[in-house]
């Protein structure tokens, strides 16, 4: 069961000390001139909480040593490799199991600097999800979590906790976990989808309306979606590194990869619905609505690969009449949308499979063609015109990709003006705020 650690005096002392220390940090994480007493407070508070977290004993011991060494080194560039190496939340996953997490790190979609962050979280691992992971969708690294409390770096849109973001002296050979905040994902999904449906006069089916009114149902939809999505990155006919973290590629390749994984989750949810899993239909709605409404209007237009995937899905459904924008009202034929979404997934699968036999640059060009078959590229695109210096290595040609290679359609240009403020209002949201 989840313990109420966020009200413990030790946590409040730790959180406040981390917050004050952050105010002294430079972008590289160093904190010249910061009072060493702040680190002492963090160490003492973590030690006070440690007896309540016996499953994290090795990590908390290593954390204390990393903090001690950082202070002894004058709070220079931090290195928390030793504590990161023994933090294993994916081992022995259990519903409600709490963790104290303290690392210098950047937060995706949040703070780009490696500031010290402190989190109180707990795992989400219901029996039905554990059964699926054990029998159908093996994913030993996947850890769905909820917020209990957090420092300023997570008072943002960030909904992930990844080991790759931690400040370390060298990159580990491998990672053993990746955590997703299902409560934040569900809460902002509910907020944005509700606003979008109202703005677009979309008539939602009763089961979809029930989903966006129920935080618990939405969280369960997202843990199913994320379980299959996360696993899909390393499964299938993949012509390149599945996470693409060691490559420099045009951003539409990242967009196709994320969309491929989402559509893999969608197709799995369709199958699971026929088998009677209650969360499966909700997961389908979550993929559709988040992709169609939130993704295209979130973030900047600088190589926004998640937004691109949402634009592509909308265009595919619209061009096949599953989505209609008529008389300033949006309508969705959900039966047709399910079939067409699966078809798009198959087309991307075929693209990947063919890519195994292509040179890298040819595959990138084929990816541009695939996206261009749905979305109009910028009229100044060198990639669309094939006005590229093919004597250069592929990595150099990425410089010729426009920041907004596939601009928003007129529909989304209007929607972002009306919905952008709603998306921004979800900054820092948690499940508790929208339950």
Characterization of this structure:
This protein is of the alpha+beta class and 435 residues long. The chain folds into 2 domains: 6-176; 188-429, no CATH class. It has 17 helices and 7 strands. It has helices at 9-22, 36-49, 57-72, 81-85, 127-135, 182-199, 206-212, 215-232, 251-274, 278-294, 305-319, 334-355, 360-372, 382-385, 394-397, 410-425, 431-434; strands at residues 98-105, 115-123, 142-150, 160-161, 178-181, 323-326, 329-332. Helix 6 crosses helix 8. The longest helix has 24 residues, at 251-274. The two termini are 19 Å apart.
Summary tags:
435 residues, alpha+beta, 2 domains, five-stranded mixed β-sheet, two-stranded antiparallel sheet, 7 strands
Layout: helices, strands, pairs:
Layout: H1 9-22, H2 36-49, H3 57-72, H4 81-85, E1 98-105, E2 115-123, H5 127-135, E3 142-150, E4 160-161, E5 178-181, H6 182-199, H7 206-212, H8 215-232, H9 251-274, H10 278-294, H11 305-319, E6 323-326, E7 329-332, H12 334-355, H13 360-372, H14 382-385, H15 394-397, H16 410-425, H17 431-434
Parallel strand pairs: 3-5
Antiparallel strand pairs: 1-2, 2-3, 4-5, 6-7
Helix pairs in contact: 1-2, 2-3, 6-8, 6-10, 6-16, 8-9, 8-10, 9-10, 9-11, 9-12, 10-11, 12-13
